[in-house]
Amino acid sequence: MSQHIRVGQEGERLALQFLQKQGYDIIARNFQGHAGEIDIIAYDKEFLVFIEVKTRTSVEYGRPADAVDKEKQKALHGAAGEFRAAYNMQGHPYRFDIVSILLAKQKPQIILYQNAIAE
């Protein structure tokens, strides 16, 4: 398994733990739609939340959340629409969050950006 796959898997594991501690109720992981993939889908109170997890080992090429560019946002919107249609949730309030994880030598730095992507 390549290093970037291992880093991504570790990031998703840490994100799940972090989100659960924040009170998120995880309902799906790695949803694959025609438009793209959504890392984590959860409820946060009344909101259905589509969560993108970005993990890096350094900031040499930018912060992890910076990797969620316009193309990725478009794919997330498309996949979220597919999920909402598949589970008849079109009228449910929803948002997009990003979990940014920097794997530092001592302790990972985790930042949650709520409502990070415009609808």
Question: Summary?
Answer:
With 119 residues, this protein is of the alpha+beta class.
- Mean pLDDT comes to 94
In spatial order, strands of the major sheet run 1-2-3-4-5
Radius of gyration: 14 Å
Structural class: alpha+beta
Q: Which range does the strand content fall in?
A: 25-35%
Give the CA-based shape: globular
CA-to-CA gap between the ends? 35 Å
Question: Considering DSSP H and I runs of 4 or more, what fraction of the residues is helical?
Answer: 25-40%
How many separate domains? 1
Give the biggest beta sheet. Answer: 5 strands, mixed
The name CATH uses for the topology is Trna Endonuclease, Chain: A, domain 1
Unreliable stretches, pLDDT < 50, 5 or more residues?
none
CATH classification, class level: Alpha Beta
Description:
It is a single chain. The protein is an alpha+beta fold and 119 residues long. The protein has one domain: Trna Endonuclease, Chain: A, domain 1. It has helices at residues 3-21, 70-86, and strands spanning 25-32, 37-44, 47-56, 94-102, 109-113. A 5-stranded mixed sheet has the order 1-2-3-4-5, sandwiched between helices. A hairpin with a 6-residue loop joins strand 4 and strand 5 (109-113). The longest helix is centred in the first third of the chain and has 19 residues, at 3-21.
What are its keywords?
Trna Endonuclease, Chain: A, domain 1, five-stranded mixed sheet, alpha+beta
List the helices and strands and how they pair.
Blueprint: H1 3-21, E1 25-32, E2 37-44, E3 47-56, H2 70-86, E4 94-102, E5 109-113
Parallel strand pairs: 3-4
Antiparallel strand pairs: 1-2, 2-3, 4-5
